[in-house]
Amino acid sequence: MNATMLTYIYGTPDALAKIVREYPENLLPLKNALAGKPVKRMMLLATGSSYNAALCARSYFEETFGILVDLKEPDYFTYYERIDPATSLVLAISQSGKSASTLAAMQKVQAAGLPVFCLTADPASAAAQAADGVLDLNTGIEQVGFVTRGFSATVLNLLLIALLIAESQGTVSRAAAAAERDALHTLAAALPTVIEKSEAFIRQHRAAWLAASRYVAIGYGALLGVAKEAETKLTETVRLPASGVELEAYMHGPYLEANRSHLLFFIEHQKNTRLRALRDYMRPYVSEVFTMTLESDEPAENTLSLGIPSNHPFSTLQLIVPFQLLSFHLAALRGVDLNIRIFDDFDQVLKSKV
Ligand SMILES: O=P(O)(O)OC[C@H]1O[C@](O)(CO)[C@@H](O)[C@@H]1O
Protein backbone atom coordinates (compact mmCIF):
# COMPACT_ATOMS: atom_id res chain seq x y z
CA MET A 1 0.00 0.00 0.00
CA ASN A 2 1.21 3.49 -0.84
CA ALA A 3 2.27 5.75 2.02
CA THR A 4 -0.02 8.72 2.76
CA MET A 5 0.43 11.84 4.87
CA LEU A 6 -1.09 9.87 7.71
CA THR A 7 1.59 7.17 7.41
CA TYR A 8 4.25 9.82 7.89
CA ILE A 9 2.44 11.62 10.73
CA TYR A 10 2.09 8.34 12.63
CA GLY A 11 5.73 7.51 11.84
CA THR A 12 7.02 10.81 13.21
CA PRO A 13 7.39 9.84 16.91
CA ASP A 14 9.76 6.97 16.04
CA ALA A 15 11.62 9.07 13.50
CA LEU A 16 12.19 11.84 16.06
CA ALA A 17 13.24 9.38 18.76
CA LYS A 18 15.86 7.98 16.36
CA ILE A 19 17.20 11.46 15.58
CA VAL A 20 17.63 12.25 19.29
CA ARG A 21 19.20 8.83 19.97
CA GLU A 22 21.73 9.30 17.18
CA TYR A 23 22.75 12.80 18.24
CA PRO A 24 25.47 13.99 17.92
CA GLU A 25 26.90 11.22 15.69
CA ASN A 26 24.47 12.09 12.91
CA LEU A 27 25.71 15.69 12.90
CA LEU A 28 29.37 14.66 12.84
CA PRO A 29 30.39 16.73 9.76
CA LEU A 30 29.19 19.86 11.58
CA LYS A 31 30.70 18.81 14.90
CA ASN A 32 34.10 18.41 13.22
CA ALA A 33 33.83 21.73 11.42
CA LEU A 34 32.94 23.52 14.66
CA ALA A 35 36.01 22.32 16.57
CA GLY A 36 37.66 25.45 17.94
CA LYS A 37 35.58 27.77 15.75
CA PRO A 38 32.98 29.82 17.59
CA VAL A 39 29.72 30.70 15.83
CA LYS A 40 28.34 34.07 16.82
CA ARG A 41 26.26 34.63 13.71
CA MET A 42 24.93 32.15 11.21
CA MET A 43 22.71 32.21 8.16
CA LEU A 44 19.86 29.82 7.36
CA LEU A 45 18.57 29.53 3.78
CA ALA A 46 15.22 27.79 3.31
CA THR A 47 11.88 28.06 1.56
CA GLY A 48 8.36 26.65 2.10
CA SER A 49 8.02 24.11 4.89
CA SER A 50 11.75 24.24 5.54
CA TYR A 51 11.53 28.00 6.14
CA ASN A 52 8.61 27.41 8.53
CA ALA A 53 10.68 24.80 10.38
CA ALA A 54 13.50 27.33 10.76
CA LEU A 55 11.01 29.84 12.21
CA CYS A 56 10.15 27.20 14.84
CA ALA A 57 13.78 26.65 15.84
CA ARG A 58 15.21 30.18 15.52
CA SER A 59 14.53 31.31 19.09
CA TYR A 60 16.40 28.29 20.44
CA PHE A 61 19.54 29.57 18.68
CA GLU A 62 19.08 33.24 19.56
CA GLU A 63 17.19 33.50 22.83
CA THR A 64 18.41 30.31 24.48
CA PHE A 65 22.04 30.23 23.33
CA GLY A 66 22.84 33.70 21.99
CA ILE A 67 23.69 32.44 18.49
CA LEU A 68 22.45 35.12 16.08
CA VAL A 69 20.53 33.80 13.08
CA ASP A 70 19.80 35.43 9.74
CA LEU A 71 16.93 33.43 8.29
CA LYS A 72 16.63 34.13 4.59
CA GLU A 73 14.20 33.29 1.83
CA PRO A 74 16.74 32.10 -0.79
CA ASP A 75 15.52 33.97 -3.85
CA TYR A 76 15.29 37.33 -2.03
CA PHE A 77 18.76 36.74 -0.62
CA THR A 78 20.21 35.89 -4.04
CA TYR A 79 18.98 39.06 -5.71
CA TYR A 80 18.56 41.70 -3.03
CA GLU A 81 20.68 40.98 0.03
CA ARG A 82 24.28 40.73 1.17
CA ILE A 83 26.03 38.39 3.57
CA ASP A 84 26.73 39.83 7.00
CA PRO A 85 30.56 39.80 7.25
CA ALA A 86 30.27 38.38 10.80
CA THR A 87 28.62 35.20 9.44
CA SER A 88 30.70 32.13 10.26
CA LEU A 89 28.27 29.34 9.43
CA VAL A 90 25.80 28.95 6.57
CA LEU A 91 23.20 26.21 6.52
CA ALA A 92 20.92 25.59 3.54
CA ILE A 93 17.83 23.54 4.41
CA SER A 94 16.09 21.59 1.67
CA GLN A 95 14.23 18.43 2.59
CA SER A 96 14.13 17.25 -1.01
CA GLY A 97 17.45 18.87 -1.93
CA LYS A 98 15.75 19.98 -5.15
CA SER A 99 14.62 23.58 -4.56
CA ALA A 100 16.20 25.68 -7.30
CA SER A 101 16.13 28.95 -5.33
CA THR A 102 17.95 27.34 -2.39
CA LEU A 103 20.60 25.97 -4.77
CA ALA A 104 21.12 29.38 -6.36
CA ALA A 105 21.50 31.00 -2.92
CA MET A 106 24.08 28.35 -1.95
CA GLN A 107 26.08 29.24 -5.04
CA LYS A 108 26.05 32.92 -4.12
CA VAL A 109 27.43 32.10 -0.66
CA GLN A 110 30.13 29.83 -2.08
CA ALA A 111 31.11 32.47 -4.65
CA ALA A 112 31.69 34.82 -1.71
CA GLY A 113 34.18 32.30 -0.31
CA LEU A 114 32.05 30.81 2.48
CA PRO A 115 31.35 27.08 2.78
CA VAL A 116 27.73 25.91 2.97
CA PHE A 117 26.29 22.99 4.89
CA CYS A 118 23.11 21.41 3.58
CA LEU A 119 20.47 19.80 5.82
CA THR A 120 18.50 17.40 3.65
CA ALA A 121 16.65 14.08 3.64
CA ASP A 122 18.41 13.14 0.42
CA PRO A 123 22.22 13.06 0.57
CA ALA A 124 22.27 12.20 -3.16
CA SER A 125 20.27 15.32 -4.14
CA ALA A 126 21.54 18.30 -6.13
CA ALA A 127 21.73 20.52 -3.03
CA ALA A 128 23.67 17.89 -1.11
CA GLN A 129 26.07 17.41 -4.03
CA ALA A 130 26.66 21.14 -4.26
CA ALA A 131 27.24 21.58 -0.51
CA ASP A 132 30.57 21.67 1.30
CA GLY A 133 29.13 19.49 4.08
CA VAL A 134 25.97 17.37 4.24
CA LEU A 135 23.79 16.89 7.32
CA ASP A 136 21.35 14.05 6.83
CA LEU A 137 17.88 14.63 8.28
CA ASN A 138 18.15 10.96 9.25
CA THR A 139 14.61 10.01 8.20
CA GLY A 140 14.92 8.77 4.65
CA ILE A 141 13.05 10.45 1.80
CA GLU A 142 9.38 11.34 2.29
CA GLN A 143 7.41 10.16 -0.74
CA VAL A 144 4.38 12.41 -0.13
CA GLY A 145 4.93 16.00 -1.29
CA PHE A 146 2.82 17.45 1.54
CA VAL A 147 5.63 16.95 4.03
CA THR A 148 4.86 16.26 7.70
CA ARG A 149 7.52 13.93 9.13
CA GLY A 150 10.16 15.90 7.20
CA PHE A 151 8.93 19.17 8.70
CA SER A 152 9.14 17.87 12.27
CA ALA A 153 12.50 16.21 11.61
CA THR A 154 13.82 19.50 10.24
CA VAL A 155 12.70 21.38 13.37
CA LEU A 156 14.29 18.75 15.60
CA ASN A 157 17.57 18.66 13.67
CA LEU A 158 17.78 22.45 13.86
CA LEU A 159 17.19 22.37 17.63
CA LEU A 160 19.97 19.79 17.94
CA ILE A 161 22.27 21.84 15.71
CA ALA A 162 21.76 24.80 18.07
CA LEU A 163 22.55 22.52 21.01
CA LEU A 164 25.65 21.17 19.26
CA ILE A 165 26.98 24.67 18.56
CA ALA A 166 26.26 25.75 22.14
CA GLU A 167 28.01 22.66 23.48
CA SER A 168 31.01 23.03 21.24
CA GLN A 169 31.56 26.65 22.28
CA GLY A 170 30.84 26.00 25.94
CA THR A 171 27.65 28.10 26.14
CA VAL A 172 25.91 25.19 27.78
CA SER A 173 27.32 22.75 30.31
CA ARG A 174 27.53 19.06 29.56
CA ALA A 175 24.89 18.33 32.20
CA ALA A 176 22.52 20.99 30.89
CA ALA A 177 22.99 19.74 27.31
CA ALA A 178 22.19 16.19 28.44
CA ALA A 179 19.03 17.48 30.13
CA GLU A 180 17.94 19.21 26.89
CA ARG A 181 18.49 16.01 24.97
CA ASP A 182 16.52 14.03 27.54
CA ALA A 183 13.67 16.54 27.29
CA LEU A 184 13.58 16.06 23.52
CA HIS A 185 13.53 12.32 23.97
CA THR A 186 10.63 12.56 26.43
CA LEU A 187 8.84 14.83 23.98
CA ALA A 188 9.20 12.32 21.13
CA ALA A 189 7.87 9.59 23.41
CA ALA A 190 4.83 11.74 24.24
CA LEU A 191 3.92 12.38 20.59
CA PRO A 192 1.64 9.34 20.20
CA THR A 193 -0.55 10.83 22.96
CA VAL A 194 -0.53 14.17 21.13
CA ILE A 195 -1.65 12.36 17.96
CA GLU A 196 -4.41 10.55 19.83
CA LYS A 197 -5.76 13.71 21.48
CA SER A 198 -5.59 15.62 18.21
CA GLU A 199 -7.47 12.90 16.32
CA ALA A 200 -10.29 12.92 18.90
CA PHE A 201 -10.49 16.73 18.76
CA ILE A 202 -10.66 16.73 14.96
CA ARG A 203 -13.45 14.14 14.99
CA GLN A 204 -15.39 16.12 17.60
CA HIS A 205 -15.38 19.36 15.58
CA ARG A 206 -15.90 17.99 12.08
CA ALA A 207 -18.92 20.24 11.43
CA ALA A 208 -16.97 23.38 12.37
CA TRP A 209 -14.05 22.59 10.03
CA LEU A 210 -16.46 21.97 7.18
CA ALA A 211 -18.51 25.12 7.77
CA ALA A 212 -15.57 27.51 7.36
CA SER A 213 -14.45 29.15 4.12
CA ARG A 214 -11.11 30.43 5.40
CA TYR A 215 -8.66 29.40 8.14
CA VAL A 216 -6.32 31.72 10.03
CA ALA A 217 -3.70 30.44 12.50
CA ILE A 218 -2.21 32.92 14.98
CA GLY A 219 0.97 32.29 16.98
CA TYR A 220 3.81 34.15 18.68
CA GLY A 221 7.57 33.59 18.92
CA ALA A 222 8.51 30.09 17.75
CA LEU A 223 4.81 29.37 17.30
CA LEU A 224 4.78 31.68 14.28
CA GLY A 225 6.53 28.73 12.58
CA VAL A 226 3.60 26.49 13.54
CA ALA A 227 1.09 29.08 12.27
CA LYS A 228 2.97 29.43 8.94
CA GLU A 229 3.22 25.67 8.54
CA ALA A 230 -0.52 25.38 9.27
CA GLU A 231 -1.01 27.87 6.42
CA THR A 232 1.27 25.87 4.10
CA LYS A 233 -0.30 22.48 4.90
CA LEU A 234 -3.95 23.63 4.79
CA THR A 235 -3.35 25.49 1.53
CA GLU A 236 -1.61 22.52 -0.10
CA THR A 237 -4.23 19.96 0.93
CA VAL A 238 -7.60 21.58 1.71
CA ARG A 239 -7.14 24.16 -1.07
CA LEU A 240 -9.13 26.90 0.57
CA PRO A 241 -7.64 30.23 1.70
CA ALA A 242 -5.49 29.86 4.81
CA SER A 243 -2.94 32.07 6.51
CA GLY A 244 -0.53 31.98 9.41
CA VAL A 245 0.03 35.28 11.20
CA GLU A 246 2.13 36.56 14.10
CA LEU A 247 0.02 37.60 17.11
CA GLU A 248 0.83 41.31 17.20
CA ALA A 249 1.04 41.56 13.41
CA TYR A 250 -2.55 40.25 13.25
CA MET A 251 -3.66 43.34 15.13
CA HIS A 252 -2.23 45.62 12.46
CA GLY A 253 -4.57 44.99 9.55
CA PRO A 254 -5.34 41.27 9.16
CA TYR A 255 -8.18 41.31 11.73
CA LEU A 256 -10.16 43.64 9.49
CA GLU A 257 -10.96 40.87 7.00
CA ALA A 258 -12.65 38.68 9.67
CA ASN A 259 -16.19 37.53 8.90
CA ARG A 260 -18.71 34.89 10.01
CA SER A 261 -17.32 32.19 7.75
CA HIS A 262 -13.72 32.46 9.01
CA LEU A 263 -12.29 30.01 11.51
CA LEU A 264 -9.45 31.19 13.76
CA PHE A 265 -6.81 29.06 15.52
CA PHE A 266 -4.93 30.49 18.50
CA ILE A 267 -1.70 28.65 19.30
CA GLU A 268 0.03 28.93 22.68
CA HIS A 269 2.58 26.84 24.59
CA GLN A 270 1.52 28.21 27.97
CA LYS A 271 -1.13 30.64 29.11
CA ASN A 272 -0.70 33.80 27.03
CA THR A 273 -3.05 36.56 28.18
CA ARG A 274 -2.50 38.70 25.08
CA LEU A 275 -3.36 35.80 22.76
CA ARG A 276 -6.44 34.94 24.81
CA ALA A 277 -7.59 38.57 24.89
CA LEU A 278 -7.45 38.68 21.09
CA ARG A 279 -9.25 35.32 20.85
CA ASP A 280 -12.05 36.48 23.16
CA TYR A 281 -12.40 39.76 21.27
CA MET A 282 -12.62 38.03 17.87
CA ARG A 283 -15.01 35.23 18.93
CA PRO A 284 -18.29 37.02 18.08
CA TYR A 285 -17.08 38.12 14.63
CA VAL A 286 -16.03 34.73 13.18
CA SER A 287 -17.57 31.26 12.78
CA GLU A 288 -15.47 29.68 15.55
CA VAL A 289 -12.26 30.22 17.51
CA PHE A 290 -10.11 27.29 18.59
CA THR A 291 -7.19 27.23 21.01
CA MET A 292 -4.30 24.77 20.67
CA THR A 293 -2.31 24.80 23.90
CA LEU A 294 -0.04 22.77 26.15
CA GLU A 295 -1.86 24.18 29.20
CA SER A 296 -4.56 22.20 30.91
CA ASP A 297 -5.94 25.22 32.79
CA GLU A 298 -8.89 25.84 30.52
CA PRO A 299 -10.89 22.71 29.70
CA ALA A 300 -13.22 24.30 27.17
CA GLU A 301 -15.14 22.83 24.26
CA ASN A 302 -13.03 24.58 21.61
CA THR A 303 -9.66 24.06 23.31
CA LEU A 304 -7.27 21.27 22.42
CA SER A 305 -5.31 20.90 25.64
CA LEU A 306 -2.30 18.77 24.93
CA GLY A 307 -1.37 19.06 28.60
CA ILE A 308 2.26 18.04 28.18
CA PRO A 309 4.40 20.99 29.24
CA SER A 310 7.58 21.75 27.31
CA ASN A 311 9.68 24.83 26.64
CA HIS A 312 8.69 27.38 24.01
CA PRO A 313 10.74 26.23 20.98
CA PHE A 314 10.29 22.52 21.80
CA SER A 315 6.51 22.96 22.00
CA THR A 316 6.41 23.52 18.23
CA LEU A 317 6.97 19.77 17.74
CA GLN A 318 3.74 19.04 19.61
CA LEU A 319 1.59 21.93 18.44
CA ILE A 320 2.15 21.25 14.73
CA VAL A 321 0.59 17.78 15.04
CA PRO A 322 -3.11 18.82 15.12
CA PHE A 323 -2.60 20.97 12.01
CA GLN A 324 -0.89 18.16 10.10
CA LEU A 325 -3.73 15.78 10.97
CA LEU A 326 -6.41 18.36 10.24
CA SER A 327 -4.91 19.04 6.80
CA PHE A 328 -5.14 15.36 5.92
CA HIS A 329 -8.63 14.74 7.34
CA LEU A 330 -10.21 17.97 6.16
CA ALA A 331 -8.95 17.40 2.62
CA ALA A 332 -10.74 14.02 2.67
CA LEU A 333 -13.89 15.55 4.18
CA ARG A 334 -13.93 18.16 1.43
CA GLY A 335 -13.53 15.51 -1.23
CA VAL A 336 -9.95 16.38 -2.20
CA ASP A 337 -8.13 13.22 -3.30
CA LEU A 338 -4.53 13.86 -2.32
CA ASN A 339 -3.39 10.93 -4.44
CA ILE A 340 -4.36 12.76 -7.61
CA ARG A 341 -1.57 15.06 -8.70
CA ILE A 342 -2.63 18.53 -9.81
CA PHE A 343 -0.53 21.10 -11.68
CA ASP A 344 1.48 18.11 -12.85
CA ASP A 345 3.64 20.10 -15.26
CA PHE A 346 4.33 22.92 -12.76
CA ASP A 347 7.97 22.09 -11.92
CA GLN A 348 8.75 21.33 -15.55
CA VAL A 349 7.41 24.70 -16.73
CA LEU A 350 8.46 26.91 -13.80
CA LYS A 351 11.68 25.07 -12.90
CA SER A 352 11.28 25.79 -9.20
CA LYS A 353 12.65 22.31 -8.50
CA VAL A 354 15.68 20.81 -10.25
O1 LIG B 1 12.58 21.72 1.68
P1 LIG B 1 12.48 21.72 0.19
O2 LIG B 1 12.57 20.34 -0.37
O3 LIG B 1 13.50 22.66 -0.41
O4 LIG B 1 11.07 22.20 -0.21
C1 LIG B 1 10.55 23.45 0.06
C2 LIG B 1 9.08 23.53 -0.29
O5 LIG B 1 8.83 23.12 -1.58
C3 LIG B 1 7.64 22.34 -1.63
O6 LIG B 1 7.98 20.98 -1.75
C4 LIG B 1 6.81 22.79 -2.79
O7 LIG B 1 6.77 24.14 -2.90
C5 LIG B 1 6.97 22.53 -0.35
O8 LIG B 1 6.14 21.48 -0.01
C6 LIG B 1 8.16 22.66 0.51
O9 LIG B 1 7.76 23.26 1.66
CATH architecture of the largest domain: 3-Layer(aba) Sandwich
What number of structural domains do the residues give?
2
Quaternary structure state of the chains depicted: single chain
Class by alpha and beta content: alpha/beta
Mean pLDDT: 97
The total count of strands amounts to 10
Largest sheet: 5 strands, parallel
Shape estimate: globular
In whole angstroms, how far apart are the ends? 28 Å
> Which kinds of small molecule does this entry bind, naming each only once?
6-O-phosphono-beta-D-fructofuranose
Q: For the largest beta sheet, what order do the strands appear in spatially?
A: 2-1-3-4-5
Strand content: 5-15%
Order of helices and strands: HHEHEHEHEHEHHHEHEHEHEEHHH
According to CATH, the fold-level topology of the largest domain is Rossmann fold
The CATH class of the largest domain is identified as: Alpha Beta
Helix proportion range: 40-55%
H/I helix tally: 15
- The low-confidence runs, each spanning 5 or more residues with pLDDT under 50, are none
CA gyration radius, whole angstroms: 20 Å
| The CATH fourth-level homologous superfamily of the largest domain | Glucose-6-phosphate isomerase like protein, domain 1
Describe the protein's architecture and organization:
The two termini are 28 Å apart. Helix 7 packs antiparallel against helix 8 and helix 7 packs antiparallel against helix 13. The chain is built from 15 helices and ten strands. The mean pLDDT is 97. Helix content is 50%, strand content 14%. The protein has a five-stranded parallel sheet, with helices on both faces. A five-stranded parallel sheet has the order 7-6-8-9-10, with helices on both faces. It has 354 residues and is an alpha/beta fold. It has two domains: 184 residues, 3-Layer(aba) Sandwich (Rossmann fold); 143 residues, Glucose-6-phosphate isomerase like protein, domain 1 (Rossmann fold, 3-Layer(aba) Sandwich). The site of 6-O-phosphono-beta-D-fructofuranose has 12 residues, from helix 3.
